[in-house]
User: Fold these one by one.
Assistant:
Number 1:
Amino acid sequence: MTRVALVTGGMGGLGEAVCIKLAALNYQVVTTYSPGNTKAAEWLADMEKQGFNFRAYPCDVADYDSAQQCVALIEKEIGPVDVLVNNAGITRDMTFKRMDKLNWDAVMSTNLDSVFNMTKPVCDGMVDRGWGRIINISSVNGQKGAFGQTNYSAAKAGMHGFTKALALEVARKGVTVNTISPGYIGTKMVMAIDAEVLNSKIIPQIPMARLGKPEEVAGLVAYLSSDEAAFLTGANIAINGGQHMS
Ligand code: CAA
Ligand code: NAP
């Protein structure tokens, strides 16, 4: 039996590593990309050259209707979603003094509303079939807060509240819901930070003195997606090189 794994934002740094890892474990991997992404076909072709048969659908995860339509199409064309990885996310960093409603709303809708928007159309099916995995990619900065990230830290902390509440509701139905909170991983999201701030303020806070690798997070997603992880639910698993221990 091939399970279907839906990874939002699979064309980004972390999402791509998750897609590759799950494909290597024989999941049928489906990803979403944002409607403005003009490189989707190129990415799919490149992945195909590497031997990966991914399917990709446009979806604005911040938009409820877009998410419902996207999942309906995936379930019609590919089949029911067994594993959902809520990975798509953005940053709009600025101090609170400069934070405006536009950048607050953009981060809340893309990083937090998206979890509702994408989980809503898949969760009942998982419950009915008696098996499912929902994995929410949060952040160390949702656990500890971060300078310049009132919007992002709030959204990422909110994701774990959602995880815990839904985990309770579906625990007896074979569906697990977990949060992963990565520390700083070497993707374009982190590379966008001013080099001076990254080197003088952030790396020194990481006991391992390096950024994490997307593959390291992907390995954890793979575990949470597996049958072996059936007893693990409602958890927030930190993977941050020792930067924050709770
Ligand atoms: N910790 C402590 N102090 C910080 C800081 C930090 N992380 N970031 C900036 N500062 C300090 C600066 O050193 C500076 O101090 P001085 O005034 O004493 O020189 C002061 O704050 C103002 O900084 P800027 O001059 O850079 O001010 P700005 O308004 O131009 O920019 C900022 C502010 C947008 C917050 C910018 O500093 C920044 O991008 N900081 C990094 C934010 C960050 O860590 N984002 C994480 C993105 S990756 C991610 O989010 C993935 C994940 O989940 C881990
Ligand atoms: P990334 O390379 O910038 O990828 C982000 C992905 O999100 C992109 O694939 C993008 O899709 C997608 N996306 C953004 N807005 C979207 C929208 N409205 N609708 C659909 N898709 C949208 O960043 P990343 O580092 O891989 O981050 C992935 C996740 O990990 C994020 O949730 C991030 O907050 C979290 N995280 C990252 C780090 C880190 O250090 N990198 C640490 C902790 C947590 P398109 O490419 O199609 O535009």
Note: The chain is about 45% helix and 15% strand.
Number 2:
Amino acid sequence: MTVKERRIALTGFMGVGKSSVARHLGQMLRCRRVDLDAVIESREGRSIAEIIDTVGVDRYRQIETGSLKYVLGQDHTRVLSLGGGTWTIPENRELLKEAGFTSVWLESTFEHCWLNIAFSRKDRPLARDKNAALRLFNERQSDYSLADWHFIVRPDLTSYQVAREIVEQVFS
Ligand code: S3P
């Protein structure tokens, strides 16, 4: 696979902007972009919040891995935005690697993520409480750091600018 043909998976904490950056990447690279959370919701016919609230986080993770396998089976997906917890599951990391995805960690401060979470319309069951979200944020840093690439998302950068930087660094 040449650099230009790279497939990338965006990981990072909730609210960091994975989906928006992926949308710009898809447009810039003129390629198919998939949002894993959206795939889960469409396959399950209900929102992620409803799934987690009904069946619990452990079962949700199984559903998520099932949808990840489904997406990875589609050869033409080149840009994939993961849910904030997807990359923390070793099996998911393995599946992404086997499918030839380069993983990119979008890192930001907790406060930056929290601000986006608080102002977002998306209901995130694992981030309804600030302290619980902060605990999760701290717990996950070591998993996120296993990604192939690492980008610091400064609060003054737009998701378009972050996507531009990724294109310049990962695809050149
Ligand atoms: C989760 C993040 C969410 C969604 C679910 C669980 C997590 O995605 O997958 O609520 O465990 O961090 P975003 O990171 O897109 O908010």
Note: The longest strand covers residues 101-107.
